[in-house]
Structure formats: structure tokens, C-alpha cells
Design a protein that fits this description.
There is one protein chain. By secondary structure, this protein is an alpha/beta fold. The protein has one domain (about 10-130): Rossmann fold (3-Layer(aba) Sandwich), CATH 3.40.50. Helix content is about 40%, strand content about 20%. The longest helix is centred in the C-terminal third of the chain and has 16 residues, at about 115-130. The protein is globular.
Length: about 130
């Protein structure tokens, strides 16, 4: 009997409730297991508690700790070292900074429809994990 493939576990970190709910549905429809965090502090708490995700998708512009600062903290604290991080944002000028912090993908929300976001995130994961 072939080994059953586990669904990818994704954490979405964004302060926009509408987008969180929409992407939650889109990724679940794509066969993924999805958790959401309405801000970076909550996302950090989940990672610090030892929750393991295959992919973390994070926005940049959020109140309190922004997405870049979130990534710095994740890297400084050596959290989620095997996780693929993807920025999903409308900030077109932060890609270089995000990539310097180990982001594997950078997607601009305004120019990508939700189904394309799901496809791109899954492709970024495959490309970085050799799947």
C-alpha cells in the first residue's frame, strides 16, 4: 500500500480578517491544513510554542510587529528552521530585505488572484523542498 501523503500545514499571518478567511478557504480547498494568526505576535507565539508548519505566509504591513520584524525575530530565535516562508504583501519595495531574511517567495497581493496565490505558494514550497 502506498504511503498516504500528509497535507501541507500552513500558517497565515495577516491582520486583514477578510483575506485570512479567504485564503484559509482557498488553501483548505487545495488540500492543505491551515492555521491563521491575526498579527505577528500571535504568529510568533505559535512558533515559540513549537508548532510546526511546512509553510508560513506573512504580510509585511501589520500593526505592532510588521512582517519584516517578524522574520527577523524568527531568524534570531532560530524558530521554524525547516519552514518555507513566503511574503504575501502589497509592498513592492521590500523584496530584497525579505529575501535577505530567508524568504523563499514574494507575492504581490494586488497583482495576483487568490487561486494563483495558492498555486504559487505550493510551487515555491516544491521548489525549495525538492518535492
Amino acid at each position: 500500500m502506498p504511503e498516504e501523503k500528509k497535507p501541507l500545514k500552513i500558517l497565515l499571518v495577516d491582520d486583514d480578517r477578510f483575506l485570512l478567511d479567504m485564503y484559509l478557504l482557498k488553501f483548505k480547498k487545495g488540500g492543505c491544513e491551515v492555521d491563521v494568526s491575526p498579527n505577528s505576535t500571535n504568529g510568533l507565539e505559535k512558533l515559540r510554542a513549537g508548532e510546526v508548519f511546512d509553510i508560513v505566509i506573512v504580510d509585511i504591513i501589520m500593526p505592532g510587529i510588521d512582517g519584516i520584524e517578524f522574520l527577523k525575530k524568527v531568524r534570531d530565535e532560530k524558530l521554524a528552521t525547516e519552514t518555507v516562508f513566503v511574503m504575501l504583501t502589497n509592498q513592492t519595495d521590500s523584496e530584497e530585505k525579505a529575501k535577505s531574511l530567508g524568504v523563499c517567495g514574494y507575492i504581490i497581493k494586488a497583482s495576483t488572484i487568490p487561486s494563483e496565490v495558492v498555486e504559487q505558494v505550493l510551487q515555491i514550497y516544491k521548489d525549495n523542498k525538492g518535492v
